[in-house]
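Lab meeting, action items carried over

1. Structure of the two-component assembly. Owner: GW. Status: complete.
Input record:
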Amino acid sequence: MEPYKYELSEDELPRQWYNLAADLPTPMQPPLGPDGKPVRPEMLAPVFPMNIIEQEVSTQRWIDIPEEILALLAMWRPSPLFRARRLEKALKTPARIYYKHEGVSPAGSHKPNTAIPQAWYNKQFGITRLTTETGAGQWGSALAFACSLIGLECKVFMVRISFDQKPFRKLMMQTWGANCVASPSNETQAGRDILARMPDTPGSLGIAISEAVEQAVTDKGGKTRYSLGSVLNHVMLHQTIIGLEARKQLAKAGEKKPDVVIGCAGGGSNFAGLAFPFVCDKIHGADITILPVEPESCPTLTRGPFVYDHGDTAKMTPLLPMHSLGHSFVPPPIHAGGLRYHGMAPLVSQTVVEGLCTPRAYHQLKCYESAVLWARTEGYIPAPETSHAIACAIDEAVRAREEGKEKVILFNWSGHGLMDLAGYQKFFEGRLTDYSLPQADIDKFLRELNGLPQAPAKKTGKW
Amino acid sequence: MEPYKYELSEDELPRQWYNLAADLPTPMQPPLGPDGKPVRPEMLAPVFPMNIIEQEVSTQRWIDIPEEILALLAMWRPSPLFRARRLEKALKTPARIYYKHEGVSPAGSHKPNTAIPQAWYNKQFGITRLTTETGAGQWGSALAFACSLIGLECKVFMVRISFDQKPFRKLMMQTWGANCVASPSNETQAGRDILARMPDTPGSLGIAISEAVEQAVTDKGGKTRYSLGSVLNHVMLHQTIIGLEARKQLAKAGEKKPDVVIGCAGGGSNFAGLAFPFVCDKIHGADITILPVEPESCPTLTRGPFVYDHGDTAKMTPLLPMHSLGHSFVPPPIHAGGLRYHGMAPLVSQTVVEGLCTPRAYHQLKCYESAVLWARTEGYIPAPETSHAIACAIDEAVRAREEGKEKVILFNWSGHGLMDLAGYQKFFEGRLTDYSLPQADIDKFLRELNGLPQAPAKKTGKW
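Predicted assembly:
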């Protein structure tokens, strides 16, 4: 019998995270404060605990994973590496397609890989309560799960329209003991101000971030901090356990290296988690094509410039050097999947500037078609976000067939779609269409960047 | 680091299913036809393919698992055996609690363990289309998944009230290419007759079975058969892969044997799947307490007599020797979980008659409380059915603490609850109550057994 799965035992769990900042050919540009000057670590202290801020600014290559965090990650890690043999047959491709199954975590996605360490470091620092925002609910669920294991209170501000449309996500958080409220809420000044002006607003990620940050920084006891599920350097760091495991598993499968590495990219963390160890290999000479995949309706990397921009709509965060469509950008409502973030992790953005990674954008109908083909060959029903990586993997496998090449394709199966079946329903009912964003729409949002500091795109030109 | 998981590699997959019928101290009594005479295998041929009927009546101890079935099961099997260390700590118990995680299958439960073989044997026999019924949707999803992999059409009659209340289960089936309709439907004579009399009926499992069986036996091309997800001998057989794997995994964990084996029991298949290999060990002298757990609101094993009864409400099936509450029994609507079947697998019933297994019944509030404690310690959110096994495992662990004994407790974590969060919502909102079924209600349903043949409870008295 040909093997489907390449598993690692718990004692083969990686003991260190990999920090790409140590190996980037051009150093990262610093985040800037409202005065245009670099943000100093201590300025972030009201928002994050100092042990996480240290990771955020670290350029140390390997960072030890504390034993207690490993023991918690071992509840579902190492995650299995599967070979998609049935899809290969359906596509008649000579390519060997491997995928890292991150849907096996209790929250159903890769998000707990950073939720657990973030909760743990906060607890170590004496924090008793975390606040966060969530859109569709993946991140809120993951942090609720992590806080329940580690013993922290957890407060989640969930964008109102999702709160109303996705009651089951809220129930997952409640099952894990978190307090999830619709945003804007009456619990913060930011929320009350917005409700006074727009009582019927559906909410937005920007508003929810403002509420979560406000509750953290205004806690007089100093025992509350804020937690973010993507974009920041320490989040990318925690997710590299995915790629580090995958490297060992590919070796067990008898593969020297992948030829193509693929991940979907919203804020960038699941892509970075799988890809960064292979970006390191590429920097050191390996021939690997690395593809972050985003939706055509939110084409941050493929059509957004590399700029300094705020991480949130309300401009509460520092300016980050990244690809961005402008901090007020929202994708058209016709889009049914996730990956709706206006910006992109600075570390991921820099790999694109350098030419180490080559972004692709996909229309949603092709992604849903790929998801259904996947479910009918490989069984697991993917999240709409994950379907972007699947669509790209299928394209690469078809290309390998056309070129007659035995390529090794590796992608990140970032999460299952069992909480997202409403999107499938719209697809089956023909209620989804593709949408190419007019350049004029992008330009409109980019105008809000006028007057912000410039982020020159620095590259070595080697890739 | 202390291990959480005890995994097997794919080449450690069991190569044979275990058939308890070969080892039962008293032979099984045969199913009876409407004339009160034993059903001959060929009489079942319009409903099931002959290769499955052969398994249904087999008394051979070990039955080879075909290589192609193994390759499909390997998509998620061997399933991990976890040790619930965090729950142990929370309970301060000296017991070691192990659970077999069947929620890792693409359909999210143990059901595909038999859906895959059933679809495969039908395909081998030249069948092109399977029909089935589903209540809450677990079994319909599993068969849809199996048919998509094996290349069969799949038709699912889903009880109308569930069809309307659980649209996401239908979408899972649709994603896997199955055709799922609300029952009663206009597609069968049985459905049309009922709709003419009761146009607003919410449907029932009994009606849905009638529709599915009718479509199988009236297919003029002879290429359609019916598939059942529990109760029958061949279903128990296919599920024994769970217990056979668990036995190997316990050995890897350094345990000689479990002291207590627990599974929830509706039709009996997930309980049997884990327990039967250990029932065999018990028959051969091992000291093991084996506990099937059912809801107090559908107490088939704990309060139903051992009788000959029909498997369905419409009395289309043969009479089976089993514990039953009467074929018209329906649990009170206050009950939010699964496990609503009026009867019980004949093989499971016989182990109870023999005293090899000792049934327990639990109220639903305790089950939901246990499920929430589980989610907050062990992470994974269980199905309401599974929560019955968890509640019993917790009780046994607490008893071990009180007795100061280092017991080894093993239970079947039969599936995740991500499609069942509406039940959790009712629990959190205080809309669930416990319900003890009055004896008069049971007696009312049992009166319909008057005039049916008797099934004498045969036992050796050894246990």
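2. GW to write a short summary for the group page. Key points so far: The CA atoms of residues 14 and 192 of chain A lie 45 Å apart. Chain A touches chain B through 47 residues (CB under 8 Å).
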